[in-house]
């Protein structure tokens, strides 16, 4: 009898506990959500912040002028607009709606090197929302044809680029015909999965990374950028993994060869009908050294392009801990934005101008000299030193085409 009474007491106690929990749950559902007041404030004052810093400090924060920022928002248009009804259902406050300007601002600060936690404190939305806004912005940039990277394809475009590079050279007219500078850029990443980590280890840089292949014009604009291969891959092999670039180079070599158009690259690439590379090794003649110097004056533009990229978008100065697909999108969008900034900003920005050797050197004006190879065989992407040999001969015949004194002194000190 006592056991039966005890069992009934336990059952009643259990039912009471269940009812208590149900009441607490209903009460919580009826209560409005408690929101972080800091996040309310961060969203509400954004427009005021954007307006106040438009004249001073805006470019340091968002890496472009205020007018370029507004034009970018206009250009991306409906692609970065968030549905107001969904926003209201999610936040319960119409003042917390995320405008397109904030989507662009969050994305630019992210590319500038800000971490997601800092973006939370700065703008208000939490990390999952920030990731959605970044995807929205990346998709908008990658689907807006007006800001896509483009090769110079027509005769007029190729001529304009060639004239731009010719103006940068102290040996004007000798290297006329350069329509791009090609080089690889390593995006540093964290250690990938164990089964592929050896492929991503770069012995040259001593870190894990992804090899990209890029080409630029004389204005430091990207005309091509592609996340090509794991970091272990050499530049010459990574170039073979860029079919759209090699197709363009084949067209350049076959169709425009009579006009003498070609690109510049470093010694990591092969010497072909479409490219010039410097001489390497010791025992070079004076004419070959002069050739290397004048070629480097123009080829350095791709190094300056990378320097500008990493200065404006500091996300590339650290190791990326994202998936390959996201890294590809980040890099592609950053290259697109660099071109957009150059085309629309009127204020010069300091960036790492390394290895620049030609400033103040002798300016030698001659008529443009078109030096071209003759294509033999079905594929023009073959080894050829004809153009380079002719340019060395041309430089050796002109006593004024010599390196400046400071370069001679520096090389003498290095050799000693």
SSE layout and pairing:
Layout: H1 2-30, H2 37-44, H3 46-52, H4 58-62, H5 66-76, H6 84-91, H7 100-111, H8 116-123, H9 127-142, H10 155-168, E1 171-172, E2 178-188, H11 197-200, E3 201-202, E4 207-216, E5 222-230, H12 235-240, H13 243-255, E6 262-264, E7 275-276, H14 286-312, H15 324-344, E8 364-365, H16 386-396, H17 405-415
Parallel strand pairs: 1-8, 2-6, 6-7
Antiparallel strand pairs: 2-4, 3-4, 4-5
Helix pairs in contact: 2-8, 7-9, 14-16
How would you describe this structure to a colleague?
This protein has 416 residues and is an alpha/beta fold. It has 2 domains: 37-147, no CATH class; 155-415, no CATH class. The chain has helices spanning 2-30, 37-44, 46-52, 58-62, 66-76, 84-91, 100-111, 116-123, 127-142, 155-168, 197-200, 235-240, 243-255, 286-312, 324-344, 386-396, 405-415; strands spanning 171-172, 178-188, 201-202, 207-216, 222-230, 262-264, 275-276, 364-365. The strands form 2 sheets. Strands 2, 3, 4, 5, 6 and 7 form a 6-stranded mixed sheet that branches. A hairpin with a 4-residue loop joins strand 3 (201-202) and strand 4. Helix 2 (37-44) packs across helix 8 (116-123) and helix 14 (286-312) packs across helix 16 (386-396).
Give the key terms.
single chain, 416 residues, alpha/beta, 2 domains, six-stranded mixed β-sheet, two-stranded parallel sheet, 51% helix, elongated, DDE Tnp4 domain-containing protein, nuclease
């Amino acid at each position: 009898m006592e056991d039966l009474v005890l069992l009934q007491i336990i059952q009643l106690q259990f039912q009471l506990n269940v009812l208590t929990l149900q009441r607490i749950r209903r009460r919580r559902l009826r209560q409005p959500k408690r929101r972080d007041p800091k996040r309310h404030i961060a969203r509400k004052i954004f427009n005021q912040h954007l307006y106040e810093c438009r004249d001073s400090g805006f470019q340091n924060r968002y890496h472009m002028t205020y007018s370029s920022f507004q034009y970018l928002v206009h250009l991306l248009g409906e692609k970065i607009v968030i549905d107001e009804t969904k926003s209201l259902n999610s936040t319960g406050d119409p003042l917390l709606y995320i405008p397109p300007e904030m989507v662009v601002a969050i994305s630019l600060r992210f590319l500038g090197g800000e971490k997601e936690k800092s973006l939370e404190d700065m703008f208000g939305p939490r990390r999952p929302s920030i990731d959605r806004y970044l995807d929205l912005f990346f998709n908008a940039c990658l689907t807006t044809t007006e800001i896509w990277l483009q090769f110079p394809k027509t005769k007029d475009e190729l001529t304009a680029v060639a004239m731009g590079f010719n103006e940068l050279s102290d040996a004007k007219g000798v290297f006329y015909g350069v329509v791009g500078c090609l080089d690889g850029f390593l995006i540093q990443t964290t250690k990938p999965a164990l089964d592929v980590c050896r492929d991503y280890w770069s012995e040259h840089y001593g870190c894990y990374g992804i090899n990209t292949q890029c080409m630029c014009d004389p204005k430091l604009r990207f005309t091509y950028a592609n996340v090509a291969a794991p970091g272990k891959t050499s530049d010459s092999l990574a170039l073979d993994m860029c079919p759209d670039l090699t197709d363009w180079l084949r067209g350049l070599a076959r169709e425009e060869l009579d006009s003498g158009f070609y690109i510049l690259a470093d010694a990591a690439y092969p010497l072909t009908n479409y490219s010039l590379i410097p001489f390497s090794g010791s025992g070079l003649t004076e004419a070959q050294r002069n050739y290397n110097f004048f070629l480097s004056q123009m080829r350095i533009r791709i190094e300056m392009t990378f320097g500008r990229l990493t200065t404006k978008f500091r996300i590339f100065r650290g190791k990326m801990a994202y998936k390959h697909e996201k890294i590809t999108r980040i890099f592609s969008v950053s290259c697109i934005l660099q071109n957009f900034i150059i085309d629309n900003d009127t204020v010069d920005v300091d960036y790492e101008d390394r290895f620049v050797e030609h400033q103040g050197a002798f300016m030698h004006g001659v008529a443009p000299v078109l030096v071209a190879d003759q294509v033999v065989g079905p594929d023009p992407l073959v080894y050829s030193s004809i153009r380079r040999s002719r340019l060395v001969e041309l430089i050796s015949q002109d006593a004024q085409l010599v390196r400046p004194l400071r370069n001679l002194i520096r090389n003498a000190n290095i050799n000693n």
